[in-house]
Amino acid sequence: MNSHLTEQNDFFVVEGLTKAFHGKPVLKGTTFTIPRGKTTVILGGSGAGKSVLLKHLNGLFTPDAGTVFVDGESLAGKHESELVPIRRKIGILFQNGALFDSMSVAENVAFPLKEQSKLPHSEIASRVSETLEHVGLADAAETMPGDLSGGMRKRAGLARAIITHPEAMLYDEPTAGLDPILATTIAKLITRLKEELSLTSVVVTHHLGLVRTVADQVIFLSEGSVIFQGSVDEFNASRLPILLEYRGADESLAEN
Ligand SMILES: Nc1ncnc2c1ncn2[C@@H]1O[C@H](COP(=O)(O)OP(=O)(O)O)[C@@H](O)[C@H]1O
Ligand SMILES: [Mg+2]
User: Fold this and answer.
1) Are 157 and 93 in contact (CB under 8 A)?
2) Ligand 1, residues at Cβ distance < 6 Å
3) Which residues are paired to 91 by β-bridges?
4) Which of 3, 44, 49, 249 has the fewest Cβ atoms surrounding its Cβ within 10 A?
């Protein structure tokens, strides 16, 4: 393969990523690539290491061994101050939305922009309205997080993550705890943002449903190793025993 091409087309490249906590291995030489401008769904069971993996992509965790490249740049040996401009390229939506409960939705969404830029108030206000519009929360600007539904919290968290115009978005279990209708709304939003903002999107989940609704590429993580990386069609056609088992379990769930 032409490594120069790979570098240009892949936003994240992860090579031999190893991570243990208190001597217990979690990631065991994980290797994969995340193409630019596409949505990659990283599937795996509970405890497979998905959240740990995601936190390596923006340098929140440091690998024991192996390398993470972001937009062609290695994170290895980078100090916190050097990670700041790299992290600015990457938005992250944590499982609980991580909103500040004492601030309104609009104040929450404005927060990262105020921290990172010297934009005038009026410009920040118009960026906030535009971003809330994007996630369908224009009417909830003055609402306090405690009064939001689960789906609205997710959307507010998402607005806060994208207001700084990141090039990539990391989503940790974006549909967990949502009913199927809200989960579908979030899935449509992930795809719309990818298309409108050309976002490189990484969606970590144990929900097979997101493969059908948002994925361009699928990665399957099992016990800290990538055992499959390919297109949705390749994933559906795969006869790997563990994938057959996973898909089978999902179908029997759907019947109940
Ligand atoms: N900060 C941490 N300190 C110690 N162990 C951790 C930490 N974060 C995750 N782990 C462990 O790593 C393993 C994988 O966790 P995680 O990535 O959260 O799984 P999941 O695939 O469900 O997201 C679990 O055994 C978890 O207990
Ligand atoms: Mg997790």
Assistant:
1) yes
2) 21, 26, 44, 46-52
3) 169
4) 3
